[in-house]
Write a structure and sequence with these properties.
By secondary structure, the chain is mainly α. The chain has one domain. It has 4 helices and 3 strands. Strands 1-3-2 form a 3-stranded antiparallel sheet. α2 packs antiparallel against α3 and α3 packs across α4. The chain is elongated, with a radius of gyration of 29 Å.
C-alpha cells in the first residue's frame, strides 16, 4: 500500500514538473519574427516598453501620411500626447494623495489651480524628450521609442510650487491691503 502511495505521489509530481513550462522570452513570441519594411525584426520594446528609475519611455506611432517625414512627426506628436497624459496623471495622483493624506492647507480651489499650473508647465517643457530607437512595420507605420527624464517633471513641479507660493502670498497680501484700505476709508468717513 505504501509503495502504491509513493508511486502515485511520484507520478503526480512528475506530471506537475512536466507541465511546468519554461519562462517565455521575447524570442519565443511570434511577433518577434515580424520583419519590418526596412528588413529589421520587430524590437522587444514594441511589446514591453522599457522601465527605468530615471527615464520614462513612451512609444509613438506615425501612420496615415504620405511621406516618411510626416509619419515621423506624427509619431513624435503621438508620443508627446502620451507623455502629457502620463504627466497629468502623475500630478493628479500626487495632489489626490496630498489631499487624502495631509489634508488641505488653504482651499481646494487653490490646490486645483496649483495642479493645473503644474500640468501646464510640465506639458510645455519637453526638454530631454529624445528619440531612442525607431522601427517601421511591414505596413510602413513608424513606431518610435522616446525617453523623457523623470527629473524634469520633478523640476517643473518644484518650480510651480515656488511660483505658486509666491503668487498665493502676493494675492493674500493684496487682499489684506484692500481690507486695510476699506478700514481706512471707513475711519476717514467717520464710520466705525
Amino acid at each position: 500500500m505504501k509503495k502504491a502511495l509513493i508511486f502515485a505521489l511520484a507520478l503526480a509530481s512528475l506530471g506537475f514538473w512536466a507541465c511546468k513550462s519554461e519562462p517565455k522570452t521575447y524570442a519565443d513570441d511570434p511577433r518577434s519574427k515580424i520583419i519590418g519594411a526596412e528588413g529589421i525584426a520587430r524590437p522587444e520594446w514594441m511589446s514591453r516598453v522599457p522601465q527605468s528609475e530615471e527615464l520614462y519611455y513612451v512609444v509613438g506611432d506615425g501612420r496615415e501620411a504620405q511621406t516618411d517625414t510626416v509619419k515621423r512627426q506624427l509619431a513624435r506628436t503621438d508620443a508627446m500626447a502620451k507623455l502629457a497624459q502620463w504627466k497629468s496623471a502623475v500630478v493628479a495622483d500626487t495632489m489626490k494623495s496630498y489631499l487624502e493624506e495631509g489634508g488641505t492647507i488653504g482651499s481646494t480651489q487653490s490646490l486645483m489651480r496649483f495642479e493645473q499650473a503644474t500640468v501646464t508647465r510640465s506639458n510645455a517643457n519637453v526638454a530631454g524628450f529624445d528619440q531612442v530607437e525607431y522601427w517601421v512595420d511591414p505596413n510602413g507605420i513608424y513606431h518610435i521609442l522616446y525617453s523623457y527624464p523623470k527629473a524634469n517633471l520633478k523640476k517643473d513641479f518644484n518650480a510651480t510650487v515656488t511660483e505658486f507660493q509666491r503668487n498665493e502670498a502676493a494675492a493674500f497680501a493684496e487682499f489684506k491691503a484692500g481690507e486695510a484700505f476699506k478700514l481706512l476709508e471707513a475711519q476717514m468717513d467717520g464710520k466705525k
